[in-house]
Design brief:
The protein is of the alpha+beta class. About 50% of the residues lie in helices and about 20% in strands. The longest helix is centred in the N-terminal third of the chain and has 20 residues.
Length: about 110
């Protein structure tokens, strides 16, 4: 019984640590003819990966240059922030806006 309690406590700790570790922010510099912004993805528990989000950012901003965030040059730029599952859905080109309009993305 004592070992079971210890194992349960350790499992709870590991699950909590894993949930906290899974949240990742990705930053991209978007440079277009009409805007110059930083796009920030706060993934939460759903993390499709950096390259996927870079492609989504580029598809969502056609005719723009998408580069990695550089603190020295990009810190003062306006940010567009997408977060958690709703942000991932909202960033899907063409249908993301429709899905959010129908189901709501908060």
């Amino acid at each position: 019984m004592r070992h079971f309690s210890l194992m349960a406590a350790m499992s709870g700790f590991l699950l909590t640590a894993a949930a906290e570790a899974s949240a990742t922010d990705y930053l991209f510099h978007v440079s277009c003819a009409d805007k110059n912004v930083v796009v920030q993805w706060k993934t939460g528990d759903v993390d499709p990966g950096r390259e996927y989000l870079r492609v989504v950012t580029g598809t969502h901003n056609p005719d723009c240059s998408i580069t990695d965030y550089n603190e020295a040059t990009d810190a003062g730029l306006e940010r567009e922030v997408y977060s958690h599952e709703a942000g991932i859905v909202r960033g899907i080109p063409f249908i993301g806006g429709i899905i959010c309009w129908v189901f709501g993305c908060n």
